[in-house]
């Protein structure tokens, strides 16, 4: 009869084989834990996305409530499992799951930190996980010093026989090495001094764990991108703390409960212990990461429980005990957790980017590849290390494996990956803003408008140069790469929370906002193209506004220029190419630096097409257009919104300094803005207020979309829609009913918004590549109003620059629209129909007649 391996742990009297019912109960509790945790986490993220999509504030109670619900639903049966069964293995299972779900509940409290402050969240996660690891480690040491017997190890004598005593196999000191593997490599529990070297002199099992962690991290280095320097460091600390926490939870005592048996069965350790560890890792992964970042971890972390079990089987075999065997788990989990924490911005795992091959798509791909790698590791390590007769690779082999994977990781990151740091920026808004009161009186018409624009530009630049000089020197000296703005007196710089705190304390600074930056993609998102047939005449919305009647009288918008700040414009589209103004100051792309109008997302091409497109899609087909890219992949930032608005006040050649090369006389007459800047992008309520005030003072007409967050009252809230010096536009359908999605007032302070409504349901317009598409939204309604203003100013050039008079004419000539309500409750009528329909549906024909 073959002798049992040297790592066999005798079955204590209290660890008799569990009966069938405790095992069935453990299986049911494990399945219940997965069935509760995964839907709660996915549902919480979807709820976050729904609130974001409808423009509502984040529910601060959402994640704490989700965590409490999970703790109650999973923790209760786990507690019973930890207390009632006689089997030590079943009780160890219950303790692991109970601890995991309690930690999950604590971690979810950290999600009360707004996602825009990701560094603060990661710092809190690192501190909380480290504290939990320290508490669990102290409890484990206290249990040992209290005299509770740990697992004993049967060690064969020189002849291979297992010595026995009155109570069974004789316990030997755990440091005795398995004769079959003696000399094969260093032990996996180095002395304390060596342990401090962070694994540099670790044994083969820990090196194999490092190799496995690098393999799981590999897809993230290939498809993801890092954030800022502090963000990356904090993500590394949080991942290390999670590894330490997992090592303290799945320690030697835990694994020894699944290695019992005569003869011992390492396969049981891998299959049963790995399954229990996988559920534990699922619970920990569910709490680790801001809303969205935990979802890929739910796929990639649980399968490595099996690999960790196989590594611990090898560690037991080499050392004849579980002493120090937390090291493989610490390394494996820590490296695996670093991927989703560091290589994906949770704010970009959003449905706002989900319609194309953007961050959500690539995160899903990365998680799927990581899942495949983790499953391969589970099978491979199980076969390699968990067979009773298996030999653990020597230290040299394990070290070469880890080194090869490290080299591969670096090569992938520097090659097909996206090396570098892509953190957020800070927008520093200064206290002093330019004084634009008492502007000189000018003659009506374009000449007067140009004179006003020049004076506004001069005052803005002078104020910014005078007040920013000292701060610019300081941030330049610190290497924070400042970008100055004058339309709002502000500077954008690099930096995290420490820099933000320093800047906020300076006397000349009013406030500091986070200016979002998107991380790069592994491949272009692709061009959004339309599939509708080309129009054969004026579209229904054009006829409904009466624009075709205006054309019949010889007015098409000629002599007027409309500026579009959006995702871009396809400058080669047949309906738009002839209308591009041209020159070196008619296109600006602060995101990618393109030199000719281009658009991948399609939103900007569609909106400018509704304003000036030929072939029956645009209200003012005779007008010209200029463009700027302020949306990259459907998200923006305060800085880039300012880049485009500044360009519209004083266009400049590509690459030139906006402070010295601006040409206010080349400013477009009208701006169409089918965007809003919510808090997720870094804006606060007043950040663009000075910008729209300056454009208004310069005689530039600003139209802005009300937003698509109706039918809730007070949903006109993202800048610039609530501002009094922009014309805010809602949407109606072909029956003149306000669309349910159209945002409603009142705006902050009680001002009535929107100002007017226009067709915004089923609007066909241009798309990149020469195609057409039908879209809904206040984004579609807004450029049509800009086109109506172009018709008015083309019909009466003396009205150019008279923004106040033009807004009033639009309101006076509007026709009634039919309001819609959330319900018939008086509280859902938004304080009156003026906050739903505004002055009514714009009438192009009546407005042009009034303008004449």
From TrEMBL:
Pfam family, one: Peptidase_S8
Transmembrane segments: 21-41, 61-84, 96-114, 120-140, 202-222, 234-255, 267-289, 295-315, 327-344, 359-385, 397-415
This protein's record includes keyword Membrane: yes
The entry's keywords: Hydrolase, Membrane, Protease, Serine protease, Transmembrane, Transmembrane helix
Biased composition (Low complexity): 149-174, 181-190
Domain Peptidase S8/S53: 557-823
Region (Disordered): 144-190
PROSITE patterns given in the database record: SUBTILASE (PS51892), SUBTILASE_SER (PS00138)
Active site per the UniProt annotation: 566, 603, 779
Family as reported in the entry's similarity comment: Belongs to the peptidase S8 family.
Name of the protein: Peptidase S8
Organism, as annotated: Micromonospora musae
